[in-house]
Write a sequence for this structure.
């Protein structure tokens, strides 16, 4: 099932509202984007990366941003070491979710890490973040383990996920 086109017959009374598909662009993150990404990260993540932490990764990591016109509405950042990659962070503006932006960001990130030589990608995700887990599963990620009490703000466990990058 395409995540940006929910099946209306399965939507309950408390299901999120369907939104029109996103028509923006995804491009490489540049140093000019760090302030916008940091501001968005503060809204998207209960334990946000700081501007300085993001800035430290931009020159060496694979970063992408989703844009509507010139406005950053999503971002992803991954590292590659030898033949392995780690997806460090992926976020989408709350008012822009359920439009396919996260899928576009993840698709481009996986393309870029593959080009950089990665054969496998790892990530951690909050066990309660069912939309993100569903997205990752749609891209071929499977469960690789659990990191107990990983998130300091709530003590929530992290689900460790893994996928092979296909060329």
């Amino acid at each position: 099932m395409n995540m940006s086109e929910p099946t209306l017959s399965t939507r309950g009374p408390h299901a999120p509202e369907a939104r029109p598909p996103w028509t923006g662009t995804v491009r490489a993150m540049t140093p000019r984007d760090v302030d916008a990404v940091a501001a968005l990260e503060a809204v998207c993540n209960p334990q946000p990366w700081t501007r300085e932490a993001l800035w430290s990764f931009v020159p060496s990591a694979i970063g992408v941003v989703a844009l509507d016109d010139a406005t950053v509405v999503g971002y992803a950042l991954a590292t590659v070491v030898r033949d392995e990659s780690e997806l460090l962070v992926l976020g989408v503006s709350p008012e822009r979710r359920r439009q396919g932006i996260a899928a576009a960001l993840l698709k481009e990130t996986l393309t870029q890490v593959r080009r950089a030589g990665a054969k496998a990608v790892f990530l951690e995700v909050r066990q309660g973040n069912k939309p993100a887990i569903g997205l990752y599963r749609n891209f071929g990620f499977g469960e690789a383990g659990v990191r107990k009490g990983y998130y300091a703000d709530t003590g929530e466990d992290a689900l460790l996920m893994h996928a092979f990058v296909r060329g």
